[in-house]
Write a structure and sequence with these properties.
Layout: E1 4-6, H1 16-19, E2 25-27, E3 32-34, H2 50-54, E4 61-63
Antiparallel strand pairs: 1-4, 2-3
């Protein structure tokens, strides 16, 4: 189970949604949300989660610490 969150800096571009191989990113009324139960952090597909790589805003999609 992944622990990533889309921060408030999100501009709502939606670039991350089609990049997710597990379709676990969805748009809410306020922002985008990553469904932790189905996120694999792109393990086996990419070194860094694809949503983090494609996001145009630095430090917008972060692991929860």
């Amino acid at each position: 189970m992944a622990l990533y969150i889309v921060e408030d800096e999100c501009i709502g571009c939606g670039d991350c949604v089609p990049e997710c191989p597990n379709e676990c990113i969805s748009e809410t009324l306020v922002a985008f949300k990553i469904k932790a139960a189905t996120c694999s952090e792109c393990d086996g597909e990419a070194e860094t989660p694809k949503c983090v790589t494609i996001c145009p805003i630095d430090n917008c999609i972060l692991p929860i610490s």
